[in-house]
Design brief:
By secondary structure, the protein is mainly α. The protein contains 20 helices and no strands. Helix 8 crosses helix 12, helix 15 crosses helix 16 and helix 17 packs parallel to helix 19. The longest helix has 52 residues. The protein starts with 16 loop residues before the first helix and ends with a helix.
């Protein structure tokens, strides 16, 4: 789940006018199909269970496909394959880390489903009742979702414009707004069930495209894996060092620590992203949630195998120098690979391959941002409005209406920020979002599930202290300033020579939760004592 940031990347993309016309037609077809699915599968009534979880009507296989879709963002599709092409070992390692994130989720899926109802606030509130815990849960959700939403929308606008042959800043901003409006419409109309079906369609399209690319790459080398590895090693420009670590963030001690920090954020933060937790809550029960997560692990392993093969093929067929000329991070590797492989076939076959890759990117972006917007809107409507403000006295009909307005508000803010951020390198927002999830959401969930002395004070220290600490570390890091790839490349006030600060922020989040709980226990030693037994029955056996 690494970042997609084409805003300051390539200025053109391979493909002629006929390819772009086919891409445009395919985009329109996917838009019509997505909206039709959302209308047909949307909520049948104005009930919270229907809007937030689709009445938990999806089968384990359907939930697994949708969960896989939540993890496969455009960042994953383009970023990991590109990193494999230009950095070799580091890209493969990041693909493995992304699979491990689902493995961590498997350990918690059943317990989280038993503890929760719709949102993160429903998971945390029973252990620390009151409006303060709801506000803290909503704060954590929005803090994680908003940077990730801005990153995805900005990258979506840039990628869509480039695939259509549009290179101006205004064109990218228009495409960003267009994708954002589609996201709002599909979420408002479809709710959880509609967005889940869009995710399932997306997974089918992306899997088909990546499997086709992987087969074409293997056929190009006569299905000899050794020939593929040798060609990737030679074509990458790194030669013997291609399968050695250190190409992504540096091969020194600091670079290795930086990449380890990034991997920690991917594994731990990716396991507890708010939209992933909301997906888990849409399962019928804890056993169903675990089963769906197991299926998702298999799907993710197959997907990343195809991504790694495609990345190696891009290094061997296209060449690392040509890929870096389009984009230094390698995120145009897949379109370039499709163009090269299609060049050896008929014109129609090449156009179809190019269109398939373009549509995979587009439908991936549309599905992911819809899920992120739904989880953020649920935090606003369910945790803040219905429970913190109205103290649980809001009717379901009004809560669903509030959630739909919240989708529009979150989507509008995301569109505005993404359009303003066009032209900047937003890669670092990935580090921020994943680190926030790993340093706030993960400690709160683990302490809440397994530590009987975790209380309201510990929760508040975890969330607010974790958000402030992680944000401060981000501002002081190279991700924010100090390099040409920073969010503010023209400034340099960094104090930490790392791009990902998860290696410091995650321990700080856990420490704050422990210290806050200890302080709260001394002030109110009996806080939560009466609810601990009922909580354990609910979490462990689903009572």
């Amino acid at each position: 789940m690494i970042g997609l940031s084409l805003a300051a990347g390539p200025t053109s993309v391979p493909g002629g006018s006929d390819d772009r016309a086919m891409v445009l037609v395919a985009f329109m077809a996917f838009i019509a199909l997505s909206l039709l699915l959302c209308v047909l599968a949307g909520p049948e009534g104005d009930t919270t269970a229907d809007f937030y979880t689709g009445n938990r009507s999806l089968t384990p296989v359907q939930n697994a496909l949708a969960l896989t879709g939540d993890y496969i963002s455009a960042a994953t599709l383009l970023g990991v394959s590109g990193l494999v092409a230009v950095a070799g070992y580091d890209g493969i390692s990041l693909a493995v880390s992304s699979c491990l994130a689902v493995g961590v989720l498997l350990l918690l899926a059943g317990l989280l489903r038993n503890a929760g109802r719709y949102t993160l606030g429903d998971i945390l509130a029973p252990r620390s009742p009151g409006s303060s815990s709801r506000i803290a849960a909503a704060t954590a959700t929005l803090a994680v979702c908003l940077p990730f939403l801005v990153l995805q929308l900005a990258g979506a606008g840039s990628a869509t414009a480039l695939l259509l042959g549009l290179t101006g800043l205004g064109a990218k901003q228009v495409c960003t707004a267009f994708v954002g409006v589609l996201m709002i419409c599909s979420t408002v109309l479809g709710g959880m069930r509609g967005t889940s079906l869009v995710q399932i369609v997306k997974v089918v399209v992306v899997f088909t495209t990546m499997a086709l690319l992987a087969l074409l790459v293997l056929r190009h080398y006569d299905f000899v894996p050794g020939a593929l590895l040798t060609a990737a090693e030679q074509g990458s420009g790194l030669h013997d060092r291609y399968f050695e670590p250190g190409h992504a963030l540096g091969d020194g001690a600091v670079g290795r620590l930086d990449f380890l920090s990034l991997q920690l954020s991917v594994v731990l933060g990716g396991a507890c992203m708010p939209h992933v937790l909301m997906r888990i809550n849409s399962a019928a029960d804890g056993a169903t949630a675990r089963r769906a997560t197991r299926y998702a692990i298999v799907l993710m392993a197959v997907f990343f195998l195809c991504v790694v093969i495609a990345g190696l093929g891009a290094a061997g067929v296209v060449g690392g120098q040509k890929i870096r000329a389009f984009d230094s991070s390698g995120q145009m590797a897949l379109p370039l690979l499709a163009g090269e492989l299609g060049g050896g076939t008929s014109g129609l076959a090449g156009s179809v391959l190019h269109t398939a890759v373009a549509c995979s990117v587009f439908v991936t972006v549309l599905a992911v941002v819809a899920g992120i917007a739904l989880s953020a809107a649920a935090a606003l409507a369910h945790d803040l409005h219905a429970h913190a403000v109205r103290r649980g006295r809001l009717s379901e009909r009004r809560e669903v209406r509030s959630a739909r307005w919240a989708v529009g508000a979150v989507g509008g803010l995301g569109i505005l920020l993404a359009a303003m951020a066009q032209g900047r390198n937003l890669q670092s927002l990935t580090y921020l979002a994943l680190t926030l999830a790993a340093s706030t959401v993960l400690p709160a969930c683990l302490y809440g599930l397994f530590w009987g002395r975790y209380n309201r004070t510990g929760l508040l220290w975890t969330v607010y202290g974790g958000v402030l600490c992680t944000t401060a570390l981000y501002v002081c890091s190279l991700s924010f300033s100090g390099t040409r790839t920073s969010l503010l490349p023209g400034h340099d006030f960094h104090l930490i020579g790392l791009q990902s600060t998860a290696v410091m922020a995650i321990p700080a989040g856990f420490l704050l939760g422990w210290a806050g709980s200890a302080a709260g226990w001394r002030l109110r030693p009996m806080e939560g004592a009466g609810t601990d037994l009922r909580w354990r029955e609910r979490v462990l056996v689903g009572a």
